[in-house]
Amino acid sequence: MGWQPELFDAGQKRLEFRVCQVQQARVTFVNGEWAGAVAMDPSRAEAALASCPQEWDYLDQAGRDGWDLAAVIPGAAPDVRMVYLRRER
What we know:
The chain is of the alpha+beta class.
């Protein structure tokens, strides 16, 4: 997928970030972009959500790609949370 990480220059370190929205254990958005393979469509909401990566699988692959978990923040609903990842660039 074509997610572009946000960049931050912290002195000598240059960091990039991913902000992921997780809903019902699925990563639905990464840096504001839909993460599902099926387009978001209210008439096909269940199929669209099911096409998003499972949270564990997404985080496992992100770790292999050098991303560290920076924070997890609860969302407005009980089954929604924001996951922040970072890595040195």
